[in-house]
Amino acid sequence: MTVSIGPLRYRDAQHCARLERQLFAADDPWSARAFESELDSGAYYLGAYHDGALVGYGGLALLGKSGDYEAEVHTIGVDPRWQGHGVGKLLLRGLLEHADAHGATVFLEVRTDNETAIGLYTAHGFSKIGVRRRYYRPSGADAYTMSRPAAVEEGPK
């Protein structure tokens, strides 16, 4: 089962919203319009596609100015039928490549009870730096804030 990663398409916004309702029902899932607004804002969004059909999505925003960027992972969602097949990892790596190309430290929030996601982020260099109590609404679930340092190119050896 081959999955390709590419820019998220406007026509996928409705599918993203359906997946949001499935994946994040207790925590104010995003609407199709929210995804369209993210794309309009210039945020960096990727889609994961199998035979042209969307099976996952992820988004990252760059904040600041050139030479002093920070990045924030806004979301990663994977169709439940595709979870456990490396789709989330592919999306995260694509987002991190974009952040690394801009020398940006990356931040994100993740539910404290989402051990799978925490493991993925930790394996990709993220560390817990704080807790946001009752971050997710309306469920009231807590979130860890995690960060990953900017990738630094090594000089000549």
From TrEMBL:
InterPro entries: AcTrfase_RimI/Ard1 (IPR006464), Acyl_CoA_acyltransferase (IPR016181), Bact_Acetyltransf (IPR050832), GNAT_dom (IPR000182). GO terms for molecular function: N-acetyltransferase activity. The keyword Transferase applies. CDD domains: NAT_SF (cd04301). Keywords: Acyltransferase, Transferase. Residues 3-151 form the N-acetyltransferase domain. This is Ribosomal-protein-alanine N-acetyltransferase. It comes from Tamaricihabitans halophyticus.
